[in-house]
Every structure is written in C-alpha cells, then in structure tokens.
Specification:
Blueprint lengths: L23 H11 L2 E5 L5 E6 L28 H13 L6 E7 L2 E12 L2 E8 L1 H37 L3 E6 L5 E4 L1 H7 L17 H17 L3 E6 L6 E11 L2 E10 L5 H16 L3 E5 L5 E4 L1 H7 L19 H15 L1 E10 L5 E10 L8 E7 L15 H8 L7 H23 L4 H8 L3 H10 L3 H6 L1
Antiparallel strand pairs: 1-2, 1-5, 3-4, 4-5, 6-7, 6-10, 8-9, 9-10, 11-12, 11-15, 13-14, 14-15
Length: 475
C-alpha cells in the first residue's frame, strides 16, 4: 500500500505510511475533501465511482451518477484524450507523476480539471482540482489587459490629435503650470514670437522670456486668473527683440492639475477693430473693381479675386492655382522679372504699364502695382491690376518721345528729303525706347535687351551709338 501515497516527486513519504492504519472509508472522505473531484477507474479506464468535494462551488453540485460504467475517455474533449493516455501510462510506470489538465465535456458543460493519477492494484485513482476559478481569473486578467490596451490606444489617439492641433495652429499658444509658471508645452507659433528654438523653454518659467518689468505684470495677471477663474490680459515685452505682445491667460484643470492656457498676440490684443479691419480687407479683395493677384516668390498664383478672373476670362479660381502670372503678360519673363525685382528692392512698384493676354488670346492694356509681402509665406507678392481699356482716351502704354528732339526733326522739313526726315525720326524714337527700357529694368541690360527683342550685343551697340553708356551706368 506504500505506492498509494507518494509525494509530488514520486518518492514514498515515510510519514504517510501510518495512513494505512485508518479505515478505508475515512481515507476516501479525506481524498474527497482534498480534491475537487475524485474518480476511481477500473483497468479499462471505466468510471467505477466519483466523489465531489463538499465545498466545491464550481462543479455546481453535479450529479455524476451517469458517469459510472462509462469510459472516462468518452467524457473528454478530443484534445484531452492523448493527455489522458499519458496520465495513465505514468501511473502504470509508478514513477514521478505530473498533473495534467483535462477538459470534460458533459452536455453543455465544459469542465477543466487538473488530475494526478495513482495505480492501486487493478484500479486507478484520479484526484482532480477544478480549474474553472483559475480560468475565470485568467479571463478577468485578459479583459483587464484588453481594456488597458484600448485605453492606451485612445490616449495615443487623443495625444496625436492634441499634438497636431497644437503644431498646426497659427495662434501662438503656451501651456503653463499655474502654481510654478513653468512651461508645459509651447507650439511653434509661440516659439517664433518669443524667438526661441524648438523645446528650449520646456520646464522653464515662461516669464523668463519677458522683459524685467513685464515679468511682474504677467505674474499679477496669472495670479488673478487663478483666483477668479476668468481670462486675464496683460501687455508685455519679450526679452529677445523687445517685441510688444499681449498675453491672455485662462485657467483650466486637467487630471487634477491646474494649468494656464496662454495665448500670445503680437502688437495688440485681438478685438472687434482688428476683426472688422480683416473683414474689410477681405471684402476689398473679393469685391474690389481692380484685379488682385497674390503669388509666391516665383510668381506662381496662390489666389486671385473675381475681377482678375473676369480680366483673363478664366471660369474658376482653382484653374489658376500653380500657374505663373507671367503666363498672362505680353512679355512673360521680362515683365514679371522687372516687377518682382523692383518690388523686392524697394518694397513696391507702382504704375507699371504693360498688356495682359486673356485665356482666349485677347490683349488688354493694364497698369500694374506690385507690393512685396514680407513674412507671409507662401505668399510673397501682391499685384493690383487696373484695366486701362475701361477709361476713355486710354492709349497703349509705351515710351514718350522727347518734345525738343521731335521739334528738331520738324525744323528740318523743307531743308531735307523725306527719307532723311524719317530716318532722323526713327533714331529719336529708337533712342527713347532704349532709354525707357533701361529705366524700367533698373539698368538690367539683359532684361532690357529681352524687352526690346534685341541681343545683348546689339543693345550695347545702340547704347554707344546714342551715347547712353554713361547715363545707363549712373541710373
């Protein structure tokens, strides 16, 4: 009977030999109390008897009388049957025994039991522990893990949304700890206003970037925002560049922490006046009688108003996107280059006369004013184009002829043949055209030659012919 009682290592325990002195019914009761389910099988692995522990809840007080006389393997799931064979083989060998998990299938009930098997004469004793409490705990852990992962994904989604909104916002924003005044987050627009590199202020006090007197004013406004919960505005100057700003501080709480949302505005706080002014400018752009075109640094059209669409006979504004303004000018490369270079040099160019070609080939005389837009990427130039064909008496733009020179030619009438008079007139007109081209291109001789349809060498010859070399160099 010593083989009936073995330790988990398979070695007989000397201390348990005295169990043989106890009555068999008492030992059976002890086994039933020690295991959740105890089975006795015959040599053919058919169930001879079954006992359920008195305090076993998970077996739900099953009636196992119908198991008697049935092969236990028929009450197991398909994947458990090979493990059951190995369980009995280990019991037959009498060596070290290991617990094996078997799944019982009894109608709709699935019962996972971990068994240890013993061979006693021609019978098998299986002592099992119900695994359903453990399985339920594992399911709870899995559900908790899935919930944590879902919360983490939601957190990442919210973090991404927050980061995208902060990074792309044109409004300068700073998140500041209410108690310490340290910067929690600062978007690129705010960094540009303060003149700092990316992330340089993280963990530092926002007020360190303000001029000395402005620090106290900001501290007072921040404390008032915390005390009253109302938005507070304060005018400050930055330490870098001594730039005038207005800071609006608004208190809010997140995760049990008090933070200040600080909005930074250059020059002046936004209000009804600035809003009305922006609205008026928008109305002027869309409803103005003159054509207005905004381009990038290369002269490619970013946006244009309705008047320009009417001028060039284009149906919708999106058809202009990406096209060069030069595509609509009579001299595409020269006119656009002259206007943009002069505007970049002096800030603006007024009264540049040229002609615009519509989408269907019509030519319209126009007067163009150009303004260089600084710090407005991707916009770089604004063109205001006035249609001269609307005005009575409008004439084609071109160089004016000097009155004294023409009078000298007229005085020759009667003293010289017509052929000589025409030649002299041609020289006067040619000289004036060259002078005008050089003046319009700000002494850019390559651009002037292209404007006149001449080679650079031919232009130099004519400049020397009319003694304009020195004058053009002085221009």
């Amino acid at each position: 009977m010593e083989e009936e009682f073995v330790s988990h290592t398979g070695s007989p325990s000397r201390d348990l030999r005295t169990l043989a002195e106890f009555p068999s019914d008492m030992i059976a009761m002890a086994l039933a109390a020690a295991g959740d389910l105890v089975l006795v099988l015959d040599a053919d692995a058919q169930v001879l008897g079954a006992a359920i522990g008195a305090d076993v809840r998970t077996v739900e007080r099953l009636e196992l009388a119908h198991w008697r006389g049935r092969a236990l393997k028929s009450l197991l799931a398909e994947e458990s049957r090979p493990k059951f064979d190995r369980l009995l083989a280990e019991a037959d060998a009498g060596g070290p025994r290991r617990a094996r998990e078997l799944n019982h299938l009894d109608g709709a009930l699935e019962l996972p039991i971990r068994y240890i098997a013993f061979r006693i004469d021609e019978r098998y004793l299986l002592v099992g522990r119900d695994l359903r409490p453990l399985a339920e705990l594992q399911r709870k852990l899995v559900r908790a893990q899935l919930a944590l992962e879902q919360d983490y994904e939601r957190f990442r989604e919210y973090e991404t949304r927050y980061r995208v909104l902060l990074e792309t916002s044109r409004e300068a924003l700073a998140l500041v700890e209410a108690d310490s005044g340290r910067v929690r987050d600062l978007n690129p627009a705010a960094e540009r206003l303060l003149g700092v590199a990316g992330g340089a202020l993280d963990g530092s006090a926002l007020s360190t970037e303000f001029e000395d007197r402005s620090r106290d004013a900001f501290a007072v406004a921040a404390n008032r925002a915390v005390e009253t919960g109302e938005s507070q505005s304060v005018a400050i100057r930055t330490r870098r560049g001594f730039r005038a700003l207005t800071v609006d501080a608004q208190l809010f709480r997140a995760g049990g922490e008090a933070l200040l949302l600080c909005r930074l505005f250059p020059e002046e706080a936004p209000g009804e006046a600035s809003s009305d002014f922006a609205s008026a400018l928008a109305d002027l752009f869309h409803k103005g009688g003159d054509a207005i075109v905004l381009t990038d640094a290369d002269g490619r059209i970013e946006t244009a108003n309705e008047s320009f669409l009417n001028l060039v006979d284009v149906a919708v504004a999106r058809e202009l996107r990406g096209m060069s303004l030069g595509d609509f000018l009579e001299r595409p490369a020269v006119d656009l280059s002259v206007m943009t270079e002069q505007a970049m040099r002096t800030g603006r160019l007024s009264g540049f006369g040229t002609r615009v070609r519509t989408r269907f080939g019509a030519v319209v005389s126009v007067d163009i004013s150009t303004t260089h837009l600084t710090g407005r990427e991707p916009l770089a130039f604004a063109f205001v184009i006035r249609d001269l064909s609307r005005h009575v008496g409008a004439r084609e733009p071109g160089p004016s002829v000097d009155g004294e020179a023409m009078q000298n030619v007229i005085d020759l009438v009667g003293s010289a043949p017509l052929k000589e008079l025409v030649a002299a007139t041609a020289d006067v007109v040619e000289r004036m055209c060259i002078e005008t081209a050089v003046q319009l291109t700000n002494n850019n001789r390559a651009a002037a030659a292209e404007m006149l349809g001449l080679s650079r060498q031919s232009l130099y010859v004519k400049l020397r012919k009319y003694n304009l070399i020195g004058r053009s160099d002085d221009a």
